[in-house]
Design a protein that fits this description.
The chain is about 35% helix and about 15% strand. By secondary structure, the protein is an alpha/beta fold. The protein is elongated, with a radius of gyration of 25 Å. The two termini are about 30 Å apart. Bound molecules: S-adenosylmethionine. S-adenosylmethionine (SAM) binds next to strand 1, helix 3 and strand 2.
Length: about 270
């Protein structure tokens, strides 16, 4: 395994922490830009304190390292210069008080109890606390495919899929009502989902733009590989008067959509 700085910090920690080997690449990918800066980092899940030391080493002395755990014993790590908050990550009121005390946050890593309820409530509660340019990484999201972490239909990954839909609802083609603007993008790697905050980009109003260049009047061949649609298009060209029949356009669009759906040949990729 190629050694990353995150892995070096993990090995250096004087206290125990257990991580999957694949995580170190992902930490490097998500967190490297925040190193050696005056950032606020929050890790949910302290356990034996090992990862607190790892993150202090990795992010450097300017970073404020905050741990959250339900186990009151975790308070002892305050002696080592960490800020520790005791409470449940599935408790909305706990997060309200936490945000009041801690203020805004740059980086969050959720390595807590990994139930869907905990992961979803933590994400929902902490999105409003994020600084621009910040990131929330939810770890061990493979629990979405395991028993014992909540109803699978409401797993963290199912929730993430809904958020992906809502990110796309920012496009002007859809009703803004359902759109998601608290974060800009979602990135998925094995066992982790990251939410990246970019306030400018996520607040942009979607609109169609024309660059004003020369119009080549090129024909769009989008449906040209569907023989049935081509036949209909030819029919409409011959019987131009069809266009003037009330509801003809709506009927033609319905027919077009039906024919596209019928010819769909990518079913095998949904298995
Ligand atoms: C996987 S361990 C954390 C390991 C640690 N990050 C490390 O790498 O060494 C999970 C921790 O989450 C804590 N935890 C479980 N449920 C929690 C909850 N509802 N709220 C806050 N912490 C919780 C547990 O007490 C445990 O210490």
């Amino acid at each position: 395994m190629k050694t990353t700085d995150a892995h070096k910090s993990f090995i250096k920690s004087p206290y125990r922490s257990i991580k999957f080997n694949t995580y170190f690449e992902s930490y490097e990918h998500f967190f490297s830009k925040y190193r050696n800066q005056n950032i606020t980092f929050v890790e949910i899940g302290v356990l034996g304190g090992g990862s607190l030391f790892m993150w202090r080493d990795y992010f450097g002395p300017e970073a404020r390292i905050i741990g959250v755990d339900l186990n009151p014993n975790a308070k002892k790590w305050e002696e080592n210069g960490f800020e520790i908050y005791i409470g449940s990550q599935s408790d909305i009121k706990f997060w309200e008080a936490f945000k009041q005390e801690v203020g805004s946050i740059d980086v969050i890593l959720d390595d807590g109890g990994h139930t869907y309820e905990q992961q979803i409530i933590t994400t929902e509660c902490l999105l409003s606390a994020m600084n621009d340019g910040g990131i929330i990484v939810v770890e061990d999201t493979h629990t979405s495919y395991m028993e014992g972490f909540g109803p699978k239909s409401k797993s963290f990954i199912e929730y993430t899929k809904k958020l992906i839909d809502k990110v796309n609802m920012r496009c002007i083609k859809f009703s803004d009502y359902a759109s998601e603007r608290r974060f800009w993008s979602i990135e998925v790697v094995e066992s982790m989902v990251a939410f990246k905050i970019n306030k400018r980009a996520s607040s942009l109003e979607s609109e169609l733009m024309d660059n004003g260049g020369i119009d080549d009047l090129a024909e769009d061949f989008r449906y040209a590989d569907n023989p049935s649609i081509e036949k209909i298009k030819k029919g409409i060209k011959i019987f131009r008067f069809i266009k003037h029949i009330p509801f003809a356009k709506a009927v033609a669009l319905k027919l077009r959509n039906h024919l596209i759906n019928r010819q769909f040949s990518a079913d095998r990729y949904f298995k």
